[in-house]
Amino acid sequence: MKIKHIIPTALLVSIGIAMVTSTANAVQISALTDDLILSFRATGGTGNAVNLEVDLGNWQTLTASSSFSISLGTDLSAQYGASNTWNTRTDLLWSVVGTDYNNPQGTPDGGVNYNLYFTVPFGGTPDSPQSSSTQQSVAGALNNLRSYLNHKNVNTTVANGLTQASNNATTNPNSYTQLITQQGSTVAPFGYFQNAIENNTNTSLGSVKEELYANIAGSSSPVDLGTFTLSSNGTLTFAQAIPEPSTYALMGLGALALLKFRSRKFNAGLTA
Description:
alpha+beta, disordered C terminus, disordered N terminus, 6 helices, 10-stranded antiparallel beta sheet
């Protein structure tokens, strides 16, 4: 009679070990400050309860690459319709955003800037840079999007070893859908941008494009970093922009501020 109790107990122990092993082996997303986040949302129809969010990695690394390419076809088909469906939708929207905001007390990288990285539909008009204090609120919203994705388990099949992705419920206050619509407002994306930052996924002409810009706080004009292209099979590529001399100067100032900030932290650690 005791054997009847031993078998279920052994099964429970076996299941428990499997659950622990599964949890231990789960790969978590590491979405860091300065990473670019690619997000998809459906305003209706199939997949409108799920955001596909992808950590594309550090913006400087990505924009310096001459061969960036990832395959999103399997994920887009799984969440938003088969391959002959998602790529004809005008209600399936996407964008890429990021920020250098990284301090919960409100001090950005270098202690001086809340820089913004964002896409605009190809041929569209980007917002102009504003002061650090003006860009602070939207930098906080973009940072919340990154933080929400950070440490989530990778649960998609995006084909790129450097890229991590997750399917997330649109009901969470820090989900892409909630943040970009600011709980219902469609007037200003993330409650800030005055111009569109999303494109749809209708690739009936072969592909759709978004231009990536950087708004360096306090500068005079947005910096064109390059072009994202989403093809009809779900491949996303990035092509570098040819920088103007002023672009080098602006980005150089940003890098210099960051180096100074890190130097101060290092020296403070030596004297602590």
